[in-house]
Amino acid sequence: MFFFDPLYFIISLPALALGLWAQMKVKSTFKKYSTVSAGRGAAGAQVARRILDSNGLGHVNVEESRGFLSDHYDPRSRTLRLSPQVYRSESVAAVGVAAHEAGHAIQHSTNYAPLALRSAIVPGVQIGSWLGPIIFIIGMFMGSGLGFTVSLVGLILFAAVAVFTLVTLPVEFNASKRAKEILVTQGFVGQHEMKGVNAVLDAAALTYVAAAIQAITTLLYYAFILFARSRD
After folding, report:
1. d(CA 56, CA 106)
2. Nearest residue to 102 (alpha-carbon basis) of 136, 53, 145, 40
3. Tell me: the pLDDT tens digits for 55-81?
């Protein structure tokens, strides 16, 4: 059966390996710089609050969330949620992550186009990520003709996942760029401490690159077996 096809592992293995390495990299880098104190002595929550307020975003709440590196900005409730390791810590790693998430809130307030596009396609991604592969598999078990059409629908639904991961890249890169600039211009970290901020945010960015590559290679695999079967 096609879902046991060794070709899938040949195509996807490099992306999977990159994803695992990226996850380990971000954890080890965060751990390393979580022991280095930022010069100004402000915790992640304080840094996020000051950045938001200085950008006219006093209405955006900053809350502590559960889970390791569960940091995110929720545009629906306009809430910035920081993990305990970031919310309470005065480390270079915590300050960098907090500023990055505040960068997303700034993107939202300025109608940053990639963020708006990513938010708009979230419903399609939620459907396509689980329903797309199911429909694709059903079509592959059906005969030619109708089966091809059904599988093609599943492929298109799953394509939304690949598009989402690609749109996510400029969103994350831009948030990190904003964070790095703000941390220096507002004096939260010194130039010598930016090495740690850069290392943490760049490692985090790599996880999004790996996710995009994984989604694209999976999509290409589905497309390959679908159109190869149609030629048989």
Report:
1. 9
2. 53
3. 999 999 999 999 888 999 999 999 999
pTM here is: 0.89
In tens, the pLDDT along 180-219 reads 999 999 989 888 899 999 999 999 999 999 999 999 998 9
Instruction: Return the percentage of the chain with pLDDT > 90, whole number.
Output: 72
Picking from 103, 101, 23, 108, the residue whose alpha carbon sits closest to that of residue 65 is 101
Which positions are annotated as active-site residues?
101
The length of the chain is: 232
- What values do phi and psi take at 64, rounded to 5? -90, 135
What would the two tokens of residue 135 be?
Answer: 């429909």
- Are 133 and 158 within 8 A, CB to CB? yes
Do 93 and 27 form a contact (C-beta atoms < 8 A)? no
- Give the list of residues 6+ apart from residue 201 with CB closer than 8 angstroms, or none: 96, 97, 100, 176, 179, 180
